[in-house]
Amino acid sequence: MNYARSIAFFERARQVVAGGVNSNVRAASRPVPLFYREGRGARLVDVDGNEYIDYCLGQGPLLLGHSHPRVLDAVQRQLEQGQLYAGQHELEILVAEKLRQHIPCAELVRFSNSGSEAVHIALRVARAFTGRTKIIKFEGHYHGWFDNILVSVNPETLDHQPVRESRGQTESVLDEVIVLPWNDASRLQEVLATSAPDIAAVIMEPIMCNTGCILPESGYLEAVRDLCTRYGVLLIFDEIITGFRLGLGGAQAFFGVTPDLATFGKALGSGFPVSCLAGKREIMEQISTLSVVHAGTYNANPVSLAAAWATLQELEQNREMHYQNLFTLGQTLMRGIAEIAERKGRRVVIQGLGPMFHVAFTTRPRIRDARDYRDVETVEYAAFAYRLQERGVRIIPRGIWYLSTAHTEDDIAQTLESVAAAL
Ligand SMILES: Cc1ncc(COP(=O)(O)O)c(C=O)c1O
User: Fold this and answer.
1) pLDDT at 403
2) Ligand 1 centroid, distance to 115 Cα (angstroms)
3) Mutation choice for ligand 1 from 25, 138, 143, 213, CB with most ligand atoms inside 8 A
4) Crossing angle of helices 185-195/220-231, nearest 10°?
5) Which residues contact 52 (CB under 8 A, 6 or more apart)?
6) Quick one: which of 211, 225, 319, 357 is 20 to 30 A from 77 by CA?
7) To test the ligand 1 pocket, which listed residue (208, 241, 274, 304) has its Cβ within 8 A of the most ligand atoms?
């Protein structure tokens, strides 16, 4: 592949944009962070005209693929009527009603723009409701880049001491966070038994998508739900990835465990910035009284809400077809990669459900937690990602693959040919 225009653009970008990218995770791509000019369905084209089958999908939001006509039509129609009112409009009600219909915990919602913002207001509401300050999070789980929760995503310590992920975060954020191993209900029970009066909430990705796509052990989510109820601690599911991807009701409907609060983003807006905090009425009423501040110039902007409304309608009206495709094609791809790797004598671990899954080079039989994840071969994986890119397949260099409803059997077959060559 020729990347001449991307390389030239990146040189220019570096003169005016810090690091040449606007989100640190984009810096990982080789030979430089690529520049793109067009996305359609499952395909993405860069500025040099190279075409890729895309499994990055905007880091997850493009569940319906790039440029879905129904979403773009809705957005275009909205644009003709204005882009921001700083006032109410009907789409807010329509989308909120749909969320309430499908998501078990969604008695009331509030919209923001990004996942990080939704998590931020979730934590604030939990603290206001309980009158407690500490938050339990789990090693390896990512809940956005804001100071108070960007802790122990890639842990360095052996004793679960909270670790800041960024220079510039103050040390005091660590006082409010307790970090525990995930999938270990007895450890959680021990901590709640001694510290519950200080703890406002337990927050988790209900599938640990950001580190190895690790599934909850059988009975674990139920056990956490029971413990939180018993100790009066709120349970927050961060469904920024699992939301709409596993089904219209998210992981909570998929697993049949209802949290007190849940955050959604990514797939909700098909690439337009919209996120949401959903929760039980009595907890969300903290915001209704206006004593808990939730604000934002762009919150529930009609353009993003038009995209969300179109996305939800599309998923609802073609529900069976879309979710069957996401799971079936995703699992075909997972199986195909595993078979090729075995033929080639390459040890891989592939984990996940299909709509999203994770591929890692490791000698372990499986990745059980953030510590197992620490010795996956990241350099080798990034090289694999680059070899796939050279063969017209775009994946995230960190290991998570996203499927869209636009991917076809032919895309999967073509991808597997590229995987065989790249491996
Ligand atoms: C589980 C989870 N929570 C929160 C976030 C933060 O969302 P955003 O990047 O939209 O701020 C992400 C982003 O990847 C995520 O995966």
Assistant:
1) 98
2) 5
3) 143
4) 10
5) 43, 44, 45, 46, 389, 392, 393, 394
6) 319
7) 241
Structure tokens at 60: 């997850």
Q: Which helix or strand (DSSP H or E) is residue 279 part of?
A: strand 275-279
Do 73 and 63 belong together in one domain? no
Same domain, 292 and 331: no
State whether 61 and 98 are in the same domain: no
Q: Give distance in angstroms: CA of 151 to centre of ligand 1.
A: 14
pLDDT for the residue 375: 86
Low-confidence ranges of the chain (pLDDT < 70): 157-158
Helix (H) or strand (E) holding 159: none
Quick one: pLDDT at residue 158? Answer: 66
Statement: the pTM of the whole predicted model exceeds 0.90 = yes
Structural domain span for residue 189: 69-317
Which distant-in-sequence residues (6+ apart) come within 8 Å of 419 by Cβ?
Answer: 336, 337, 340, 388, 393
Token pair, residue 189, equals 């029970």
CA distances from 75 to 304, 316, 325 (A): 8, 18, 25
CA distance 306 to 309: 5
Q: How high is the pLDDT of residue 290?
A: 87
Longest dimension (CA), the chain: 61
Chosen domain end from 263, 293, 317: 317
Q: How many domains does the chain have?
A: 2
Between the CA of 280 and the centroid of ligand 1 the distance, in Å, is 22
Closest CA to 275 of 247, 326, 329, 238: 238
Q: Which residues are the active-site residues?
A: 142, 238, 266
Give the pairing of strands 275-279 and 261-264: antiparallel
C-alpha to C-alpha distance for 85 and 82, rounded to whole angstroms? 8
Integer Cα distance of 315 and 177 in angstroms: 37
The CATH number of residue 63's host domain is 3.90.1150.10
CATH number at residue 175: 3.40.640.10
Neighbours of 409 (CB within 10 A): 11
- Whether residues 140 and 170 share a domain: the answer is yes
